[in-house]
Structure formats: structure tokens, C-alpha cells
TrEMBL record:
Gene Ontology molecular function: any one: ligase activity
Name under which the protein is recorded: Acyl--CoA ligase
Pfam families reported in the protein's UniProt record: AMP-binding (PF00501), AMP-binding_C (PF13193)
Keyword Ligase on entry: yes
NADP found in the keyword field: no
Species in which this protein is naturally found: Anaerobutyricum soehngenii
Length: 613
């Protein structure tokens, strides 16, 4: 790509004055065109200056006796949640956890996980959330990086504990069971089926119930300014997972922006929480945002495409936030045939990209089920405090976009180039509407830094000419004059062919995904024997069930479609059909693994390979 970006023409720029906007300069950071979809003077609002714990409790003063958590039909009120948090604070204080210290968590989302986050937040300690499905060495490395001498571990993971301790010193091990808050009858049945964990305990282990009983008094910690409250890890889709240091005010800013956004919400609304706390989206949007708005959070620690439709049918949530895999399970489920969705306010999808075809399919599903809202698409990053853009109303949506910036954020697009190693060379040169470049954000939800990695932090958090710190996401896209953001792919997903021709893989994906037989497609660049440099694009495809036996016909049609829709050198050169895609632990397509699988079937595509060299 040439420095300065590529003009992506969608028509002439409109010149008009918009609500909350002083002028139309053609630069998103100045015009903030998305503010036309928000209430007037919304930018004058300031985020609350208090602990995340106090923000939830202060907001819930008028509905203390309303249900905060529904855990397998055990209902816990806001007052009971507050009392439970106080117990957890006393317990952590007893074992010596205090301000600035980190506690590592290897647990799913449970009521006790939630109490722990707010307990540590109140005393200005740090919760470090680690995906318990990770390998032993990665878990140990994360604990060591956070300098956490206390861990909270789900009992099912205890067999891993001895291996973890080979790599890192741990002082306290608090053992938590998913049964702690279950209703009595369900708990009895659960415990009858549960494996005996006694043989996996050691002298450092203390069961949760005993941990809570051993609490002591603590000294209240007043809010005197922003502080670190959590460490989350990136998904690892583009590189090794990185620890992201999250500030208290950023957590509050995310919740507060949803309150300001105009999305309909009411105390008592049901939010179906299926995202784990070890994903930033789960912590910020799955837990803190619903509590800040007075919702009932239905907590389900183990959600899958098989059981998600059943939970939606049972709890009839007004709000749910899922990845495309789970939304697909709704679309394809027989259980959903007669379910009325008229009460669903925000059917949100995020976590990974969806094609325009998928978007149409999801919106058609909502319409057929009596829902008047369009799909609440979103876009975010762990480094940006989770979601920083969303569809907040039907009016704010445009097909193919991921929505508009949340009201206190500023999003724009900046030019970049690639060096000889295909690494991004970033700039502070802002592009105009509809010009492609790197999507960047500045606002109150940004991370403080990458944990123990100032060099990498300085590569993505960059001070611009306006004096603001901007997060450079590494995503390629553009923003239009309405404020809608369009994201194509990771900049790193561009490949250079053997003749130094640039190919954006998402462009091929969009064409292939438009075919009626294709359920999902991922295009990767692969090395080809005989060429010292460059890669060629390979399309990995999952077919819809009714087309599985028509594989050869579908591939022939896809070749023809590629040749018709794309420049001849930009077509996929290899094809492979898979029954299922390999996925990362964060539930996204594992592109790295796809690159390493077999090459698939080579396609001539009317080009002789030697002509590319």
C-alpha cells in the first residue's frame, strides 16, 4: 500500500451540518459525524470518578432487592451480592492481599468470580484473568508476569496444579467449585457426579467455603484517582497472547457510555451472560455493564452451540452478546422455530467478523421472529477496553459496517505502510472519509499498557498531533461520512505474492462467502515450494450441509466466481474443504493453524504460476 492510503470511492462526500458537529472537514476526528445519532451535548458528559464497585452499588440503591444474578435459578439480589462481596474482601484481606497486589483466576464465570472482581476492585487490588484452557506453561507464565502469589482455581483444574507449580511459585491456592451457589437440590445432584478432589489438594490449598469463613476486618480504601483493576489477555489470533493492563476508570467508562448511548434498558432487564471473565468483553460488557444498568445477569459458566438455544428459550433475555458461532446455533435450532423475539432489545454479535451474507441471514432470522431491531453488531479490542463501536439503533446501522463509535470515543483512520518484513509502519497522518487505512481509537477506555512490555506498548499507543494518545488496532478499514466503521481484516492478513503483488485476503473471503453453498470461508497465505519469497492465497471452506456431496461442483463455481469478481492475480490459488475450522481458545478461527495444514487443491485459474515470478 502506498503511504497515505488508497481512495475507496463510495460517492461524493456529503457537506452538511450534523447534530453535535460544528463543521464537516472530511476528517472523522474533527467532525465526529456519529454524534448525529446521539442526544445533543452528549460529549459534555464525564465518566464517574469512583471505584467500579461503588459505581454498581450506588446505581443500585433504589433496587437493592431486585435480582442481580440468576445462577441456574438461584436468584441473588443486589443487596445479597453486596454482602457476598464484603465477605470476599475480608477473606482476601486475611491472607494478606491488599492494594496493588494481583490475584490470578483460573475459573469460568461464576457468582464467586464476580464477587472476587468487585472485592479486589474495592480494595484497589488487581484481578488477573487467565483462560483455564491454556497450556500449563502459558498459565504459569501469566501468573509469573502478574506477580500473583495467590490463585483462585476451579476444582476441575486441580490435576494441572502440580505441573503449574513446576514453573512458578504460588503461596495460596483457593479452590472453587461451580456448585458453590447452586440451588440446594441441584447442588446435591452436582456433587454426587463430581470427582473426588481430595487427592489433588496440597498444603497450600483452601476450599472456598473455608476461605470465606476465615475472613477478618479491613480498612476502607477511598477512591483518590484512577488505578489498575484487572489484567486481561489478548486472544492470540495475530500473535502470542499479551497481558493488557486495565484501569478502573476505563471499566466504568465502557458501562457509562452504554448508559448514554440511547440503547433501551431498564432495571430488571435480563442479560444472558455467556462470555467468560477471562475475555475482556466478558468482564466489561458481560458483567460490569449489565450490573451498572441494574439488569439481572443470567450467569452460565459453560455455554455451547448445543445448549445456547435452550437457555435463550428458557430465560427470554432482553439483551445477549454472543459470537457468530452461538448466533448460528439460534438460526439453525429447531427449538427457536416458534420462539417470539419481540422482547429482545439488543441481540449483539461480536468477537469475530461476519460476512454481509451472514448479516442478512441474522437480520432475516430476527425479523421472522417478530423482532424490530437490527443485529447489534459491535467492534472492539482488549486493548480498547472491549467494545468501542456498536450499532446503537437501526438508524445508526449500515450493511457491512460494525456500527459507530460509542459517544465518548473518537475513531478515525490513519495511513500506514509495510516494511520488508511485512511489519506495519504506522503514521499519524489522518485519512479522509472512505479512504482505507489503519483504524485507530482514542478515548477513556484504552488500556494503560501491555504488561511488562513497554516496547510493544509504544508501538500501538501513539501520541498524535492533537496531543491525544491513540490506539492503533492493526485492523484495516475505513470510516464514512455518517460515522459508520467498516473493517476488512488484520493488516497482517495481507500477503505479498512471489512477484511482490499485494493481496488482501478478506477481499477473497467476501467473494467466496457470497456463494449460496458456502457456510464459512477463511483465506490464508501459504508458502509454495519453488519460490523463495511471497505466498499464494488458499481458501479454506466449510460448506453448508446440503452441499457437502457437491464439493467438486462448488469449487468449480467458486473458481468462476473468483475470476469474475476479482482481478486475475487476486484469486484464490488453492482450495480445501473442511468439516470444521480449527478455533483459538477465544473462539475465533485459528488462521495460523490453517496456514500450516495441507495445501489443498491447486487451481490454475487461467494463470500460469511462472508468470507471477
Amino acid at each position: 500500500m502506498k503511504k497515505g492510503g488508497i481512495k475507496f470511492l463510495l460517492g461524493k462526500e456529503k457537506k452538511y451540518k450534523m447534530n453535535n458537529c460544528k463543521r464537516q472537514t472530511g476528517y472523522a476526528s474533527v467532525d465526529k459525524p456519529w454524534l448525529q445519532f446521539y442526544a445533543k451535548d452528549i460529549v459534555k458528559k464525564t465518566i464517574p470518578k469512583m471505584s467500579a464497585y461503588d459505581y454498581v452499588m450506588d446505581n443500585s440503591t433504589s433496587y437493592k432487592n431486585e435480582c442481580a444474578i440468576n445462577y441456574f435459578d438461584r436468584k441473588i439480589t443486589y443487596k445479597q451480592m453486596q454482602d457476598n462481596i464484603e465477605e470476599v474482601i475480608r477473606a482476601f484481606t486475611k491472607i494478606g492481599v491488599n492494594e496493588g497486589m494481583a490475584v490470578a483466576f483460573l475459573v469460568p464465570t461464576l457468582p464467586e468470580s464476580i464477587y472476587s472482581f468487585y472485592a479486589l476492585n474495592k480494595i484497589h487490588a488487581i484481578s488477573c484473568w487467565i483462560d483455564p484452557r491454556c497450556g500449563v506453561e502459558r498459565i504459569a507464565r501469566s501468573i509469573k508476569e502478574a506477580k500473583a502469589h495467590t490463585i483462585v482455581i476451579i476444582d476441575l483444574l486441580l490435576p494441572k496444579l502440580k505441573e503449574i507449580e513446576k514453573f512458578v511459585r504460588i503461596k495460596n491456592v483457593i479452590v472453587l467449585s461451580a456448585a458453590e451457589s447452586l440451588p440446594l437440590g441441584t447442588k446435591i445432584l452436582f456433587n454426587l457426579k463430581r470427582k473426588n478432589i481430595e487427592e489433588d489438594l496440597n498444603e497450600k490449598c483452601i476450599l472456598w467455603k473455608q476461605f470465606i469463613k476465615n475472613g477478618c476486618n479491613y480498612k476502607e480504601k477511598a477512591y483518590t484517582g484512577d488505578y489498575i483493576t484487572a489484567i486481561e489477555y489478548t486472544s492470540g489470533t495475530s500473535s502470542t497472547p499479551k497481558g493488557v493492563v486495565i484501569l478502573n476508570d476505563a471499566i466504568n467508562a465502557l458501562a457509562y457510555q452504554y448508559k448514554l448511548s440511547g440503547v433501551e434498558h431498564h432495571p430488571g432487564d435480563i442479560a444472558l451472560n455467556v462470555m467468560p471473565l477471562f475475555l475482556m468483553y466478558g468482564l466489561a460488557c458481560g458483567v460490569h455493564m449489565p450490573f451498572s444498568l441494574g439488569m439481572t445477569n443470567v450467569v452460565i459458566p459453560n455455554v455451547s452451540p448445543d445448549n445456547f438455544p435452550r437457555y435463550v428459550k428458557k430465560y427470554r433475555p432482553q439483551h445477549f452478546m454472543v459470537n457468530p458461532i452461538l448466533f448460528d446455533s439460534l438460526v439453525n435450532s429447531d427449538e427457536m422455530k416458534d420462539v417470539d423475539f419481540s422482547g429482545v432489545i439488543s441481540p449483539a454479535v461480536g468477537g469475530s467478523a461476519i460476512s454481509s451474507k451472514k448479516e442478512e441471514e441474522y437480520n432475516l432470522f430476527l425479523k421472522k421472529h417478530n423482532n424490530g431491531h437490527k443485529l447489534a453488531k459491535g467492534y472492539g479490542a482488549t486493548e480498547a477496553g472491549s467494545a468501542f463501536a456498536a450499532v446503537i439503533s437501526n438508524e445508526s446501522d449500515q450493511k457491512g459496517s460494525v456500527g459507530i463509535p460509542l459517544p465518548l470515543n473518537i475513531v478515525s483512520v490513519f495511513s500506514y505502510s509495510l516494511d520488508e518484513e511485512n511489519e506495519i509502519v504506522r503514521s499519524v497522518n489522518e485519512l479522509r472519509y472512505n479512504e482505507e487505512g489503519e483504524i485507530c481509537i482514542t478515548g477513556p477506555t484504552l488500556m494503560k499498557e501491555y504488561l511488562n512490555n513497554s516496547e510493544l506498548t509504544n508501538k500501538v499507543l501513539i501520541k498524535h498531533k492533537d496531543g491525544k494518545i491513540w490506539l492503533h488496532t492493526g485492523d484495516r478499514g475505513y470510516i464514512n461520512e455518517r460515522g459508520n466503521i467498516f473493517v476488512y481484516d488484520r493488516i497482517g492478513r495481507m500477503i505479498i505474492t512471489p512477484d511482490s503483488h499485494n493481496i488482501y485476503l478478506a477481499s477473497i473471503e467476501e467473494v467466496i462467502n457470497s456463494h449460496i453453498a458456502v457456510d464459512e470461508c477463511a483465506v490464508v497465505g501459504i508458502k509454495v515450494d519453488g519460490y523463495e519469497k511471497g505466498k499464494l492465497p488458499k481458501a479454506v471452506i466449510k460448506l453448508k450441509e446440503e452441499y457437502i456431496n457437491k464439493r467438486d461442483t462448488v469449487i468449480r463455481e467458486l473458481i468462476e466466481l473468483n475470476n469474475r469478481k476479482l482481478p486475475e492475480r487476486d484469486v484464490a490459488r488453492y482450495y480445501e474443504i473442511l468439516e470444521e475450522f480449527p478455533m483459538t481458545l477465544g473462539g475465533k478461527i485459528d488462521y495460523k493453524k490453517l496456514e500450516k495444514t495441507t495445501k489443498g487443491e491447486f487451481v490454475d485459474a487461467n494463470i500460469i504460476i511462472s508468470e507471477l515470478i
